[in-house]
Amino acid sequence: MNTSPKAVRFDDDTLWVSLSDGRTIAAPLAWFPRLLDATPEQRTQVELSKNGLHWDARDEDISVAGLLEGQPDLSRRAMHLSA
Questions:
Q1: Residues 66-81 as b or e (16 or more Cβ within 10 Å = b)
Q2: How would CATH label the architecture of 5-82?
Q3: What is the pTM of this model?
Q4: DSSP letter assigned to residue 23
Q5: Which of 8, 32, 57, 64 has a Cα-to-Cα distance from 70 of 20 to 30 A?
Q6: Which runs of consecutive H residues, i.e. helices, occur in 2-83?
Q7: pLDDT score recorded for residue 73
Q8: Per-residue pLDDT tens for 44-58?
């Protein structure tokens, strides 16, 4: 994939990711419980890579491919299936 994240921002309910190809992706924060529960300061502590986003303090990784496919955080679903 040639599209990488260039910037990340949040509003009250949404994660916004600006991509290198000029698109901006929006995803509901409810899809990512670790970010939903994070403080505004913790949300700004994001590391951008060529493939996605990483929040070390929140143990959260989001891929650009997953965002483009409309995939929410799958770790919570896996936890429910194993319970």
A1: bbeeeebbeeeeeeee
A2: 2-Layer Sandwich (3.30)
A3: 0.85
A4: -
A5: 57
A6: 33-36, 40-44, 64-68, 74-82
A7: 82
A8: 999 999 999 999 999
CA distance 20 to 3: 6
Look-up of token digits 């929140």: 58
Alpha helices per DSSP H over 16-73 = 33-36, 40-44, 64-68
* Band of residue 82 on the pLDDT scale cut at 50, 70, 90: very low
Encoded amino acid at 78, one letter: A
- Lookup: tokens for 64: 């650009």
Token pair for 9: 């921002």
Residues 3 and 54: their CA atoms lie apart, in Å, by: 16
Count other C-beta atoms under 10 Å from residue 59's C-beta: 9
Distance CA 4, CA 48 (A): 8
